[in-house]
Each structure stands twice: as structure tokens, then as C-alpha cells.
Amino acid sequence: MDSVDLVDLDFFGAIVEGGAGVVRGRRASVCEGVGVDWRMGGLVAYLASDVLVISLPPFPAVSPFPDSLSASRHRPTVLPVPHGGDPGSTLLRNRAGSVLSCLALADSQLVTRLVPHITELSSLPLVLHLAVRDDLSDVLILRPSIPFVLHSSTAQQAHDNALLASRLARTEKKAVLHIFHVGESTDSVQEVEEGKVQPFLLQEVPRSPPRSLINGHPNGVNGHGLNGANGHSDDVLESSDSITNELYKAYEAATWSTVALTRRPVRPIAPHSSSATSPHTILLTFGRPPAFSDPLEGVSVLAVSLFSPLPPAKILRAIPPSATRVIVLEQVQKWPVKFTPFFLEVASAVQSADAETKPTVHPSVLGLPDTIKSVDVLKLVQQASSGVSPLHLGSFEDDSQTPALPEVPHVPKHEQSYTKILARLFDGRLEIENSPFLVAAQGSAATTPEFALGRVRGELEERAALVRAVQALLDHGDVTAELHALLTRWLLARDDPVKSRALGAEIVPALEDANVEDPAVARILMLRHHLPARSRWIIGSDAWAYDLGASGLHHAIASGLDVNVLVVDSTPYSARARADPARRKQDVGLYAMNHGDVYVASVAVYSSYAQVLQALVEADRFKGPSVVLAYLPYAREDAPALEVLKETKMAVDAGYWPLYRWDPSKEGEEVFKLDSDAVKNDLQAFLDRQNHISQLVRSRPELASELVGSLGESVKEARRRKAQKAYEDLLGSIDAPPLLVLYASDGGKAEKVAKRLAGRGKARGLSVDVKTMDSVTLEDLAKEEGVVAFVTSVAGQGEFPQNGRTFAKAVHAAATRAEKPLRGLKFSVFGMGDSHYWPRPEDAHYYNKAGKDLDARLEQLGAERVVQLGLGDDQDADGPETGYKVWEPLLWKALGVDAVEVSEAEPEPITNEHIKVASNYLRGTIAEGLEDNTTGALSPADTQLTKFHGIYQQDDRDIRDERQAQGVEPAYQFMIRVRMPGGVCRPDQWLRMDQIADEHGNGTFKITTRQTFQFHGVIKRHLKPAIQDINRSLLDTLAACGDVNRNVLCSAIPSLSKLHAEIYEFAKGVSEHLLPRTTAYHEIWLDKKLVAGDSLKDVEPLYGEFYLPRKFKVAVAVPPTNDVDIFANDVGFIAIVEKGHLVGFNVTAGGGMGVTHGNKKTYPRTADVLGFCTVEQGKAVAEKIMLVQRDNGNRADRKNARLKYTIDRMGLETFKSEVEKLLGWKLEPARPYSFDRNIDDFGWATGEDGKHHFTMFIENGRIQDEPGRDFKTGLREIAKIHKGTFRLTANQHVVISDIPSSELAKIKELLAQYKMDNLSQTGLRLSSSACVAFPTCGLAMAESERYLPVLIDKVEKICEENGLRNDSIVMRMTGCPNGCARPYLAEIAFVGKAPGTYLMLLGGGYYGQRLNKIYRESVTEPEILAILKPMIKHYALERLEGERFGDFVIRAGYIAPTTSGKEWYDRMGGEGEHREVSA
Ligand code: SF4
């Protein structure tokens, strides 16, 4: 065998020209014992790629290819890049291949070169085979940006993983990073035959793992991990991150192909040393595992070969239940931040484990594995058990090889994170211009930015002088051709950090030896230290931000010099408000961006390490000033790293510290790159500002359109008009008396009153401004010279509405301190409330409490009341208007404008009717709003319109206060509801829903009371992809909400297969028939443009452009089951079955649930039976009822607009005759029917066609994984194999339906495995139902879905004590009176009024035939339990045979029966001795 002692560019050139192995005068060959792994990577890279980029160090040099390649017929294009060059650019220039590969040594130079391109590279079919020398610190920098990262610690593994990586890159069209170790290795390697590589890459994806893989437990180590699952290849991943799951599935499929080729197992985590059977300690190794051979008692070493994606479930499965300790060994000797790359991932996986006792997790750094002996491992285990930290295993490379940091007297511990990164990135060329190290020689001024700037200027001038000297020597110096060429090359490459240094190192001896008599030579030698290009940095703290001018930062920014400024901000997020009470800290980033030609980045090392690197590299490259704002929050120098991590996360998540990069040099590219999700308001404002938009338009037109064009022409026009109007107002009101109207409003009522007041003030010639209370401070208010009118409603138990709370707190605090900051302020308050909301005498003080408190406290603060407090009461004849009409004239009088005649009519308030008609058939400006990335919300009008598209805008109410305190907008998110008539879906559709919840929502989804899926937590930019995914599954969301016909319900009836098929078809038919015809849905969400452009106009033949006055609901029921609560719907069809055949329906009309607390014009209503129609006539009947409602419904008052009110207003007979008039025929008399339940029939049933159905219980319809109840996973697993359908029930449960007998055993097995077959719940729980309410529903006043299970825990104990464990009692709860869970038909119901407080209702009919009635107007949990305990006992003792609870409470005299909706309020509050005292 020939040997080669040098591999140089000639070698690669030879490959390019002549094919593998043909080297000019030499042959590439195998050099025994050195760098075998190189060749394993090289062999596969060569055989698998179309383009192969190679960048290897010159010493020690071996061929990366084995001899055998000379016979290969596959000839990739091999492109050599010198070591230290930029292989990333070469790869991007040659990206056309189906597989690209790069073979290189991963040192800091290479990684620095790759970082700027890594985002682009990651989406190419590329394998980066990067070699390491027992330290992964450099290469792991790339990990966060690359989808797949594999690690090989042996030669054979390098060979196999190289194949696997190539296959992955080819099939997934994504980048794969393959890390392997170079060094001495004598392992024998079984190589793949050359001819098999290309077919392997091209073969189809196998559907299942090869047998060897199944037997080999590829995913687990011993098959039984911490979560107790087995280790088969089709294990559930259980990662909440669906991207990780998808990537892992792709990896798994590629392993199957690889194993089929190599017949060797490929395992993401595999045992390394001989492992104890029940180890107490696991060494989880990320790097080359220790080489000791003796088995260690109780210690197992596991080697991880899949670094990304690494689902937590895989980690857990690898850890046996016996383990009490996991030591995460990471081979990262130079990692600059405290948390190493994998420790947190392992720790959080272990935290999420479903085990009772969890092992402790310890971080540890792994040194050189070859030196490690078993005794070292034992010592490590001992240290871990005695709490020693930090832990190390093995020896480490000579520290002298690590770039030395400039020695500084004192740099705070945490801040060294950044200086270390700088030192590593700019190894050998870093100049910290104000290093404290200079203090000794230059005095204390050396650390100031002015001093540093002076140094930079001097250095740059010297370098310019060097350039001039080189040019002079080239122009007229007497130098040899070689020296001339050398100097020319330096001149051309003088800004290239690698080349300039290498060439400089050649120039100096060449000049010294040249013996040339030229002054330029002496000058060059004198300035030799400037031959390498330097990276110049000034490092400062956020103290500079308090006075930008004086701090010298301004000079650095304005200098135009090529200098980089790193500003480290250490103010912890949680202490930001205290940090600068007196002085205002300025935003250095915005200040710098305003200068235009400055590179600006905002980074946080504890949030995104990769982004820090990108920013520092870009700043270094930028020819001009760069400012990098680096976040490193710590209160004390000894603050633990975990605290820094937490503070960073909060700041970045809240948008307080956005991560971004602004690179004005990127002409024609993306100038501004936001690297985190949230931005703070002033940055948004900056991006919005016109002068910068014009910069953006110049540099990247499409970005500008994202920022401004997205606001929509109408919005821009509105802004222009507003600006014009503001100007005119200013001119017109210079002499007018000022009125400031401040309001606090949750539901919009007080806001409307305030704005109307402002409009009327303007009409009287006043200079008026209107704002929320929270938008002013007491200091602002103290400066007000006119009158301030406050308008507030009241929330919960007397609290202020959300947008007045901060102000109210400030007022309260000042009053408590007995201060008088508002002396001289003139004010008046108008409060709005409901005197009956809290009916008990002891609660009476809650009435209008916010307004009353404010009025009293303003006076305490020294303000002067100009008009007495006005109070508006919902209970007055005209509602709050009654009180308002008295208060307003007094205010005009106080302002002296009561005599002003107002001739102009007041503008009509904008209602939903205006929004609908102006929307151009439901378009509005939704499309523009979706593009507007400056807010997470849509415009208020669009939020009304999106309901018609099945979308509700909401915000996370759990964090509303916190976000407001942070000064950021609410955490806007959207609920999406699917239209799925009859609640039937296929398994593939279920799987898609499951995936959408993970990818776009909050990871769970809800089965609703309208038999459909609902996703929560979808943020704006995910809306469109989510809707598109739903449509891809052949479902849609059109008309799932809004003033149209909603999802049509039909009974689930598992046992009657034929009948179900018929009524399901009928329900679908009605749904399709009543669907809006607008094309807006397809245009906005599915990007389907109108073929004929604007010339084609939408028509809505059924709805017209106003659509319906309110929502409209249709249901189909099959007696005796009333599982759809037919009487709660606007239209109902009760199936009439005669002799086993569906002959038609009894038609019902006028059911509805929604109510407004305290508004007796609103009430729930059960539907009336109108008559009978045939199946064929059904659609027309539904349509005509809807049309009568369309034309007669109350469009002036949405609270009175449902069909139930229309029928009561028109009279049932008149209504019916209107319907029959439109039909042109009369309904037949209703036929007999009878219902006996409205709950689901849980458990197994077999249909007439022999197929099986299982109705499972899902508490309140929430599909999620909970400890011990992995229902989401379980249902997903069933959907994977199920061949029938799923039926959702209107009680929020699910029927796994149409199971063929052949599949029964498998389904039963999965049901048992995931405990989904458990129906041992009490009768009460099985009959319960709750709406969503907090945290997502914007209307919720109290908890519902999260609280009802807790309440049932307590009530079911009472039932059990009384022997009623299995008795069904229908109990329902909603968070507000809108009644989504149909509470008014329950035997016991709770309707939220305020947090923890509910309306309690009793006496509903067991099968949904009778409304219940208010029993108590406000109860809390202790009161509920105190009421129910004797009542349930009474029921248990005295009920009649078969008597239902709802009937009993009426017979026993607790509550009167409700005979019709209009009488719902009559006799509320209980009967006789049970009557509420205050009612
Ligand atoms: S009943 Fe009220 S709180 Fe519950 S989901 Fe419906 S609107 Fe929201």
C-alpha cells in the first residue's frame, strides 16, 4: 500500500480533473492508524454527493478517500476550499445538486465562516461532515440552526452515519450535520459497496422498520425507560414540539433504510460500556465516550448519536427506572456560557417524566476519553452524589491552545460570556480598544469610549499608511516577481482576516530577506502588526445609554469608522422599573438605527447563542460602525446562571429585549431581521416611521410592503384623515375650553358612552381629548387645565375595568399616603353598573363601586368636583341612559356650553350591521390585517368579520395584567372552530387535527358542544397556515361562527347504523344548503384569487349583504336520545322513525340559550314544535325559517336578535304562517315522539351492520395528554390504525365508530393501554359539561372548564355518601351567561358572574325538555356545597321510583318549574323555606 504524507490542493485538483485516486504523480491511499474516520466520511461523501466541498487542514494530512474509489463510476464535482476559507459560499454557489456534501475540520475558524450562511444552508440537501478533535464546542454552535445532527464516535459509526446523513439530506431536502472524530483508530470497518450507495439514496421510504431493527430495540436502550414505555420503533414520541416529532420520524425512516443496507443497528442512544442491569447512575454521553473497559457496579454509560432532533421521550426511554442519578457528560471544553448545550434538554426531559421519583441530573464536562479509567468514573459519581460542582471527567487539552483573553483587572463574571465569545470568534485578531488591561499603562481614561475611539482612529490611520506604503513599493520599488505577487495578493485580501494574516506572515520574512533599499520597506516593517485585518471592539455598559451624547457612544456611531461597539445591558427584566427612576435610559439600538449607516444588533447569549455569533460576525464584517446590544441580566455578580437564564427568557418573550439584526449594507436583501417573536412598542414605532420605511423601500421593497402596505389602503387613508383632522382640531380649538374624557371599560359600553360624550363636547366647541384612564399618570393629570370627565363601568366585585386598573391603583396609593397631587383639577365621574347584579344586601356596595370609589378618592387627592357623581343603572327604565341624561347637561353647564345650540346630527354609532354591509361580503381588511406584523391583533371590525370565517380573536387572560404592566399589548391569539356537520370525521382528518393543534395551537384541542373541533392559542401568523391545513384535510371553518347558520348537529346514535347514515347525510345537506356563498373565505385563507378579478361580484342568495341578525343553529335528534339538546336550537329536526324507516321530522323552532346578567329582556328559551315535514322537505323548511328570521329579527339590538325573541315578538302562529307562506305549503301536524335522556350512551355498542362503536368519556371535551391520561396520544394511536370514523358528540365526548370486528381487538388494546376505556366515573361526572371560559374566552367572567372537574370532585363525594354514585345528574357550568355549554337545560347549573362566584340554577329537565331557574344569584364554592349537601341527601331519601333530580327539586319545593322562556325570571330565588332571603 502506498502512503501519502501530504494532502494538498493538488490532490483535490486531481480528483476534479481525473477522478478519484488519480493524483498527479501520487496516489491517495490509506494510511494505517491515522484518520481512518476521515476516510469513512470521505468515502460516503464522495459516493453520495453531486457536489463535494473539501476544506482540510494541511497538517497532518491524509487522504480523505480510500484507494477503492478509483474504481467508482460515480464522479461528483469536488471543490477544494483552503483551510480557513469559506466553504459556505462555495456550497451556496453550487447548490443545484441533489446531495451536497462538505468535508471539513470543525475548528472555530470554519464555524465562524459557516455561521453567516447557516440559515440558507440548513434548507439545502446538504451533509456537513465535520471532524472534531475531542472537543465539540465549536461544531455545536451550528446545532440550533441545522435540522439533523448526528454524532459518530467510532470509525464504523462514522461510515454508517455518513450513509444515514446522506439519505436524510436527500429525502428531506434539509441539511444534516454529521460530527465525527479524527485521530488514531485501528478499528476495522465494513464498508458499503460503492455500487450500492446511489440506489440506497434513491430507494423508496420503507413503510416499516426491517426485522433486525425491530429486534434491536433501536429507540430505547433496554426497552423500558423512565416513563415505562417499551422501546419499539413505532413508539409514541410524546414531544409537545411537533417539528421535533416530524424530524424524528424522518430520521427514523432513514435509519430503516440504512439498517436494511448495512445490517447493523442504528440507535439514537446506545449503551457503551457493559452496563449494569439496574444501574443507579447513568452517564449520558454527548461526545466520544470514555474508553475504560472494566464494568462498573451500578453505572451505565450511554452514548448519544442523535443530537438533533432528540425528543424528550427518547431520552426518558433510555434512562432505566432504577436510575437515581443522570450525569450529562458533554465534550465541550471551551463552551463559553454556563449551561452546556444538552444539560437543560436532559434536565427538562427528566422533569417532564411521568415517574414518581425522578433521578437528579448533573452537568459535567468530558475531557479526553482515552485517558479515562474506571476509577475516574467512580470518583465522578462520588462527586456528583456529594454535590460537587462543576464536574469534570478526564484530562483536558493544554490550555495554552485556547485563545488567551486579554488579561483585565476585573470583568464581571457573567459578562465574560461575551468577551469569551469575541476571543474565540476573532482568535488572534481581536482588539478590545478600551480594555481595562490598558489602565496600568494609559491611566483610568483608557476604558472610556472617547479614548477607545481615539485609539481606533489612530490604528486605522496607521493601517491606511501601511496600505499606502505597500502600494508605493509595488509602484516603484525594486522587488522580485515573487515578492511583488505576494504584496499584490495581500493588497487584494487585506480585509480578509485569514488571508491577510497568512500573507502577512509571509511578507515580513520575505521583506527582511529581500534586502531592498526603499523607505517603503522600512515603513511596512514598522507597521507590520497591521498586516492582519483586526476586529476592533469597544465594550461598554448600559450606563452609556443614560446620556448618549456625553458617553461618547454618539461619537462612535457618528464617526463612520470601522469600529464595533458592544454594549452589555445587565438590568434584570424584573428590576427594570426600579433601575432608573429619575433618569431615562435611551434605546441605543434605535438611536443607532436612526443614523442610517450603522449595523445594529440586539442579542442575548442566554436566549440564542447562534444569533449572538451571527450578529458578532456580521458586525465585524460591516464596513462602518456597528453597535451590538448584548443582554446579560444579573442583579449581583454571584447571581446563579439559572437566574440569568430566567430573566433573559422573560425579557425576550415579553418583547422587552427583542432579538434583531439591522444591516443597512444588505442592499436588496432583508435589512431588518427579527430573531425573536416579540418587539417592544418603540421599536415597532420606529419600523413604522416613514423615513425608515423609505429606507426599507429603497433597500427591500417587499419588507416595506410588509410593514406598511399590510396596514391596508383603508387603514392608511384613515390615518391620513385622522392626521388632517387632528391638525384641524388643533387650529379650531386653540381658544376653546378643554375637556379631557377618561374612560375605563371592559365590554365597550363605557367606552361608547365616553366617546359619545367627547363627540358631543366637540359639537359644543370644546377642545376634547378622549383616552383610557391607564394612558395617563397622576402627574399628567395634575397639569390638566380644563375639566376631566371620567366614565367607568365596573368589573367583577366592584373592581375597575382592565384599562383603568393601573390608574385606579395610583389614585388609591396616593390617597393612602394622604397626598394632594390633584389640587386644582376639576372633575366629574359617571359610573355605570347594575344594581341587581349582586342582589344580597351584604353585596350591595359592589354596585357601581368603581365610579363611587374614584369620585371619593379624586376629592381626597385635592381635585375639585364640578358635577356630582352620575350613576347609570342597567335596571333603570332606559338602562344607564336614565342616569346619564341627568348627568351630561350638568357637565355642559359646568363648562359653560349648555346654551350652545348643536345643529349637526350625531354620527350614528358603528354596529355589527354596518360592519357586515361594509365588508364586501366578509372581506373587510382581514387580508391586510394578517400581513400587519406590528401587532398580534386584527382591527376591531375585522374581529367581527373573522367570526364568519370560524375565527375568534382572544387573548391569554391569565397574563393580561402582567402584559399590561409590561407596557406590551395583550397576548393576542385566536380560536379556530372547524365546520364539521354531524361531528363525523375520518381517522386521517383526526390525525391532521392533532397535528394542527401541535403546530399552530396550544398543543391541545377541544371537542365543542356543537360537535366540532376548536383550536386555541393560535397566533396571528399561524392563522392562515392553520386554516389551510384544515382545508387540506377536506374540512373548513366557514360559518363555524358569525351571524350565519353554524355547525349542524346530529345525534351520534352508535347502535342505529342505517339511521345514523341517513340523518348524517341530512345534516350535511342542510349545512351545505345554508352555507354562505361568499368567495372571501377562499380568497383570504386559501389564496384563491377571483378569476375575473373585481368584475366578478359575490352574491349571497340566502343571506344578502347584511347576513342574519344573529347566529343561527340547527340540530337533528333521533328519539329517544336527545344528545343534541334539540330544544336549545333555533331549528330542530326530531327524526320520526316508523317501522324502522326514517319518514320525516317534527320541526322545532325558537330555542336558544344566551342571556345577559341583569337584563330581563334576555332569557333562555326552549324551542316549540311547529309540525311535521318529510325528509325531502327538511332543507326547505330550515331555509324558510332562516329567511323569516333574516327579515324579522331585531337588528337594532343584538341582545334581542335571536330567533327566540323574534318568535315571541311575532307570536308562534304568525311566525309559523310566515314560514308556510314562503314554503308555499303547510306543515303537517307533529307526530308522536319521546325522549328519555340528553347524555351520551358510554361504552360499547354494536350497530345493525355488525360494526362496533365505543363512546368514551373526555372530560369537558379537552383532548390533551395529562399525567396518567394520555388521551391525545392514545386517540392519535387509534387514528393511525382505525378504519372507521370518529363521531364527536354534542356533550363533548367522542365515539370511536364503525370498527370492523377484525380491528376490535387492536382498538380495545389501545383503549386499555391509554386508559381510555375507563368508564368508572360517577354518574354525575359522566353527565357533566363545561364551556372553555378562562384563559382564552374573552367573555368569561369566571372559570368553567378548569373548575368544574374540581367542583365535581367535591359534589360526587356527597353523592357517594348518599348512595348515588352511579346516578346520572346533569350538571353544567359556563363562565358567562352566553350559555355555550347549554347550562339552562341542566338539572343543576352554574353560570359565572365574577371570579369564584356563580349564578346557581336548578330544575332543568333530564332530557333537555325544560329550562331550569335561578335558585341563587351569587354563590361561591362553600355555599354551593352547603346547598347541595342536604338537597342531594333529601333526593336520595325521598325520590320516587325513577324520579330525576331536576323533577325532584320542583316536587320537593326547592324551585318552581319554568314553563316558558318568557317566564324564566318568575319565581326565581327558590320556593318557600328555600327562598333566598334577599330575593
Ligand atoms: S359560555 Fe361564555 S365563558 Fe363560556 S365559552 Fe361561551 S362565551 Fe365563553
From TrEMBL:
<dbReference type="InterPro" id="IPR006066">
    <property type="entry name" value="NO2/SO3_Rdtase_FeS/sirohaem_BS"/>
</dbReference>
<dbReference type="GO" id="GO:0051539">
    <property type="term" value="F:4 iron, 4 sulfur cluster binding"/>
</dbReference>
<dbReference type="GO" id="GO:0019344">
    <property type="term" value="P:cysteine biosynthetic process"/>
</dbReference>
<dbReference type="InterPro" id="IPR011786">
    <property type="entry name" value="CysI"/>
</dbReference>
<keyword id="KW-0521">NADP</keyword>
<dbReference type="InterPro" id="IPR029061">
    <property type="entry name" value="THDP-binding"/>
</dbReference>
<dbReference type="InterPro" id="IPR036136">
    <property type="entry name" value="Nit/Sulf_reduc_fer-like_dom_sf"/>
</dbReference>
<dbReference type="InterPro" id="IPR006067">
    <property type="entry name" value="NO2/SO3_Rdtase_4Fe4S_dom"/>
</dbReference>
<dbReference type="GO" id="GO:0009337">
    <property type="term" value="C:sulfite reductase complex (NADPH)"/>
</dbReference>
<dbReference type="GO" id="GO:0000103">
    <property type="term" value="P:sulfate assimilation"/>
</dbReference>
<keyword id="KW-0408">Iron</keyword>
<keyword id="KW-0479">Metal-binding</keyword>
<dbReference type="Pfam" id="PF01077">
    <property type="entry name" value="NIR_SIR"/>
</dbReference>
<dbReference type="Pfam" id="PF03460">
    <property type="entry name" value="NIR_SIR_ferr"/>
</dbReference>
<dbReference type="InterPro" id="IPR008254">
    <property type="entry name" value="Flavodoxin/NO_synth"/>
</dbReference>
<dbReference type="Pfam" id="PF00258">
    <property type="entry name" value="Flavodoxin_1"/>
</dbReference>
<dbReference type="GO" id="GO:0050311">
    <property type="term" value="F:sulfite reductase (ferredoxin) activity"/>
</dbReference>
<keyword id="KW-0198">Cysteine biosynthesis</keyword>
<protein>
    <recommendedName>
        <fullName>assimilatory sulfite reductase (NADPH)</fullName>
        <ecNumber>1.8.1.2</ecNumber>
    </recommendedName>
</protein>
<dbReference type="InterPro" id="IPR005117">
    <property type="entry name" value="NiRdtase/SiRdtase_haem-b_fer"/>
</dbReference>
<dbReference type="GO" id="GO:0010181">
    <property type="term" value="F:FMN binding"/>
</dbReference>
<dbReference type="InterPro" id="IPR001094">
    <property type="entry name" value="Flavdoxin-like"/>
</dbReference>
<dbReference type="GO" id="GO:0020037">
    <property type="term" value="F:heme binding"/>
</dbReference>
<dbReference type="GO" id="GO:0004783">
    <property type="term" value="F:sulfite reductase (NADPH) activity"/>
</dbReference>
<dbReference type="GO" id="GO:0050661">
    <property type="term" value="F:NADP binding"/>
</dbReference>
<keyword id="KW-0560">Oxidoreductase</keyword>
<dbReference type="InterPro" id="IPR045169">
    <property type="entry name" value="NO2/SO3_Rdtase_4Fe4S_prot"/>
</dbReference>
<dbReference type="InterPro" id="IPR029039">
    <property type="entry name" value="Flavoprotein-like_sf"/>
</dbReference>
<keyword id="KW-0411">Iron-sulfur</keyword>
<dbReference type="InterPro" id="IPR009014">
    <property type="entry name" value="Transketo_C/PFOR_II"/>
</dbReference>
<comment type="pathway">
    <text>Sulfur metabolism; hydrogen sulfide biosynthesis; hydrogen sulfide from sulfite (NADPH route): step 1/1.</text>
</comment>
<feature type="domain" description="Flavodoxin-like">
    <location>
        <begin position="739"/>
        <end position="892"/>
    </location>
</feature>
<comment type="similarity">
    <text>Belongs to the nitrite and sulfite reductase 4Fe-4S domain family.</text>
</comment>
<keyword id="KW-0349">Heme</keyword>
<keyword id="KW-0028">Amino-acid biosynthesis</keyword>
<keyword id="KW-0004">4Fe-4S</keyword>
<dbReference type="InterPro" id="IPR045854">
    <property type="entry name" value="NO2/SO3_Rdtase_4Fe4S_sf"/>
</dbReference>
<dbReference type="GO" id="GO:0046872">
    <property type="term" value="F:metal ion binding"/>
</dbReference>
